[in-house]
Design a protein that fits this description.
This protein has 268 residues and is of the alpha/beta class. It has 10 helices and 9 strands. The strands form 2 sheets. It has a 7-stranded parallel sheet with strand order 3-2-1-4-5-6-9, sandwiched between helices. Helix 5 links the parallel strand 7 and strand 8. It binds D-galactaro-1,5-lactone.
Length: 268
């Protein structure tokens, strides 16, 4: 693809991974952006920018066809930090996309937008959001924001509720939530190229037998995961599982139990 694709969070773990993996699958016109320049090669195009600044966000989105939006705080933080970086940053990005006539946005959502669902509940693209943290709430907001910008302004979007994207699964939860780097790259590529997309919610998970998510919508859009957590030694992974009883009940794991003052029985 020769059209310009902007990757936010290009110095971070997943944005950085995608900056490299998308070049490998034929993206010829990638532009990376982040607060700091880290792990960026000489031949890669990169602009430092802060999405909290609307002016800079408008500047970096000029002439862009699609945005792969991974630039955000990736874990729980204070309400103010999440509000400024994730919520306002994402709002600025979509508004800049509208002004500059960007056609598509791939939004890095997270399983923490639905983290307060119990592990016994199988979810799909219609399941209600149940954020488990300020961080998860910012992802739920991004999903709604992208739906508004699709319906109102025709900016196509795909929100990927990413499970645990790591080189390999590390604990028993990951047996359900893991996605490989290759499978995440495949989903982002579909989000950019699939012509039928208007606004989509898909799950960022490999083909895991113990998945909590029915990802048939992603499959319909062309997703054929190549990896699975099943090929790892599950007994070995179980040893690494945390001993947090509440976390073990809910899909969001330790994000649900952190600072918890509620009533577990009421969270059905
Ligand atoms: C996420 O959204 C986080 O960015 C990542 O650090 C992990 O915590 C992941 O979810 C997960 O739930 O495993």
């Amino acid at each position: 693809m020769n059209k310009k694709v902007l990757i936010t969070g290009a110095s971070g773990h997943l944005g950085g991974m995608l900056f490299k993996s998308m070049a490998k699958i034929g993206y010829r016109n990638l532009l990376g952006t982040d607060l700091k320049k880290k792990n960026i090669d000489k031949n890669e195009k990169f602009i430092k920018a802060n999405l909290k600044s609307f002016k800079s966000t408008v500047k970096i989105t000029k002439g862009v066809y699609a945005i792969v939006h991974f630039g955000a705080i990736p874990i729980e933080d204070t309400q103010q930090n999440i509000l400024q970086n994730n919520i306002i940053g994402t709002y600025n990005l979509f508004e800049a996309a509208r002004i500059n006539k960007v056609k598509r946005v791939i939004f890095a959502s997270s399983n923490h937008a639905i983290g307060f669902h119990r592990r016994t509940t199988k979810l799909n693209e219609f399941s209600v959001q149940r954020p488990d943290s300020h961080y998860g709430l910012s992802k739920a907001f991004g999903e709604d924001l992208s739906r508004l910008y699709a319906d109102k302004f025709n900016i196509k979007s795909m929100c990927i509720r990413i499970g645990s994207c790591l080189k390999s699964p590390k604990d028993r939860r990951h047996v359900s939530t893991w996605i490989s780097y290759g499978d995440l790259t495949q989903l982002v590529n579909i989000g950019i190229k699939n012509k039928s997309i208007h606004h989509e919610i898909v799950y960022g998970a490999s083909k895991n037998k113990k998945s909590w998510w029915n990802n048939s919508r992603a499959n319909k859009l062309g997703y054929k995961p190549k990896d699975s957590a099943d090929r790892f030694n599950i007994n070995l992974l179980s040893k690494n599982e945390y001993k947090d009883k509440m976390a073990l009940l809910f899909q969001g794991g330790v994000f649900t139990s952190a600072n918890f003052k509620g009533n577990i029985k009421k969270i059905k």
